[in-house]
Amino acid sequence: MAYQVLYRKYRPQSFEDVYGQSHVTDTLRNELRLDRVHHAYLFTGSRGTGKTTCAKILAKAVNCLDIRDGDPCGVCENCRGIDSGEILDVVEMDAASNRGIDDIRAIIDEVAFAPARAKYRVYIVDEVHMLSRDAWNALLKTLEEPPAHVVFILATTEVNKIPETILSRCQRFDFHRISPADISARLCEIAAKENVSLTDEAALLISVIADGAMRDAISLLDRCIGISTDITAEVVRSAAGLAAQGHIFELANCTINKNVRKALEIIDSLYKDSKDMGSLCEELQSHFRSLMLIKSVGNPRELVVMSDREFDAAVAEAAYLSLADIIYYMDVLSKARSAMRDSVSPRTELEMAIVRLCAPELDKTDDALFARVAALEKAVRLLQSGAPVAQTQPAPKATEPEKPQPAPAPKKAEQKTASESKPESEPLPEPQPEAKPAEPEKPASEPQPAAKPAPRRQNVDMEALYRNAVPFALWPDVVSNLRHYSRAISAAFENTNAYESGEYLLIETNHEIAFELLKKSAQREEIRKAVQEITGKVYKLGPYKLPEKKVSRDDVLNDFITRLKDSGVNVTEE
Description:
Strand 2, helix 5 and strand 3 (121-126) form a beta-alpha-beta unit. The protein is 51% helix and 9% strand. Helix 5 packs parallel to helix 6. The chain is α/β, with parallel strands linked by helices and 574 residues long. The protein is built from 25 helices and eleven strands.
């Protein structure tokens, strides 16, 4: 017997065997149990998600002589006849090659006759969006009022091209992209049956490359088996023509460190190994997309499909880039990928994009100029605030391509300042209704006599703290950066001001929610991190409340007289 490819060999024969489409299979099984068979079904979704497979299972189920819990038995005469093609009452038609009105008229002529051996005459029309307008018009009446023994199952990847008149006459099922976890589980099951060793990392990589298509994943597994029966991530990358993950991390590090020479050497090496430059560009863009999710999402581990080792390395890279930088990198790579389609030299387009990322002064586009202006504005604000500019943009120097290591200097500084500031016991001034600002509590680490009252010197120091406070120019950037940690905290500090006084950062706000957040050590730590990312310094946090201005009776009277004069009333001095 000739070799049968894996995606056909392991095609599901019942709804229970279908992975990742339970919302479709459960509904169809319930309808079959209750004998509620519709006359027309529409299956939509991207390629390789199980549309045609479910259509064939449904065609067997409606004709099965011994249906079992909504699934075809697979052993009765009708099931075996449909599988072998002996029963001609189940017709499969590809609308991409049979899209004319004559093809539809042939179906219309056939539906008038009762099925020869099965209970229903079933028509499975794949890629139905390819039908011509005349063919749709000819099918419309039959689809609206078909004979009782006819079932239509239409499948398409582009539901937007289906006429509304057809959509309203079909029961629609949307097939979702299959999750990487479901694809990996199915691949491991097939590998076990084929006596093939498949690592978890390789299965996960195949599922990511397949992009939600089970058929594509199984086809790639079939290709990997042709290379080796011991399938690892390296075997998968070789079969798919992808660059090693270490090269992707290394290229990303080169763009961060502005190392043009090394980046071009990596591209040259991959080009000599016959790696596709378009795929390499897409991989690099996908890598920066992962960094974008890490910077933007509270729990990115569920969205970034990587091994734990690769995820840790990606987190280390993301720490050295702002979200604006990552978006700019992705935009440059996206434009390069579009230019590759019409270019005679895709390699040149990729090299030009990498040079732009490594040397932004060479990029004269509006986006690049805006990015450089924004960086200059940020540097000016940092200089005005007295913060060290060099620490705001550290660049990792990765020596190992598989796992880049961050620069040690910012890490040590962060640990040292965090340990010295002791956020759990830092003094936190409480807001008071009096005109005079409240005093902060003394830190728990300092000895404080229980019987003796606080010396008057603290009042003087507190007054000096507020008197010497100067506006903190970078506070809007801090509030914006807080969105990476918590949108709720960021929203609480919108439209607020901050003042810097020595090692204190005093926040002025009238929102009680903001004061409550400042009282909690966990929330203060998030605010402190956001401030440190912008300024490179660790501050002690507290509220800032301006003294209330006393208004005299004469001031009120004078103000009232002024408003009367403004309104046109003649007011005499008496």
